[in-house]
UniProtKB/TrEMBL annotation:
Pfam families, per the entry: SMI1_KNR4 (PF09346)
Cited SMART domains: SMI1_KNR4
Domain (Knr4/Smi1-like) ranges: 33-143
UniProt xrefs under InterPro entries: Knr4/Smi1-like_dom (IPR018958), Knr4/Smi1-like_sf (IPR037883)
Top-level division of the source organism's lineage: Bacteria
This protein's name: SMI1-KNR4 cell-wall
């Protein structure tokens, strides 16, 4: 699966050399690789376990380029939890994409929705985006490539 992502990212870079895709001027198809040691430290500090799909992605490709504004601007993994809320992201999640206007996508790393990707909308409601990180990222990549190829 990782090889497929690399091939599609290469295709996306090729057809978007001018960074016309929304958000690409910010992330410029860049990734920050995260080492196994960094991941293990992050897991230990936050008492979580990162889902295997996401783990392999950030180890082999990195963290950064994604839907809309992409990963948080500093390229760092950011753990979120709020025991006072009942939303799936509240039990424990990682922000994987910022969409603007307070909207963001989260990978759930703790609780009943572990491994799923949820979006928090501007009105603080949430909805399921994908069953796992690979599905979420694949959907975005395919959509972005399709959109850019249609404009050629």
């Amino acid at each position: 699966m990782i090889k497929s992502f690399i091939n599609r990212l290469d295709r996306l870079r090729e057809i978007d050399s001018s960074n016309s895709l929304f958000g690409s001027k910010r992330w410029k198809y860049g990734f920050k690789t995260i080492s196994e040691t960094e991941i293990q430290n992050f897991e230990k500090v936050n008492s979580i376990s990162i889902p295997k799909e996401f783990r392999s992605f950030i180890l082999e490709i990195g963290f950064g380029t994604a839907e809309n504004y992409g990963a948080p601007f500093n390229g760092e993994l950011t753990f979120c939890n709020d025991d006072d809320d009942e939303f799936p992201i509240s039990e424990g999640s990682i922000i994987i994409a910022e969409h603007g206007c307070g909207i963001a996508s989260y990978l759930i790393v703790k609780g009943d929705y572990y491994g799923q990707v949820w979006v928090m909308l501007g009105d603080c409601s949430t909805k399921l985006e994908s069953k796992d990180y690979f599905e979420w990222y694949s959907n975005w990549l395919d959509s972005a490539i399709e959109k850019l190829e249609a404009t050629d």
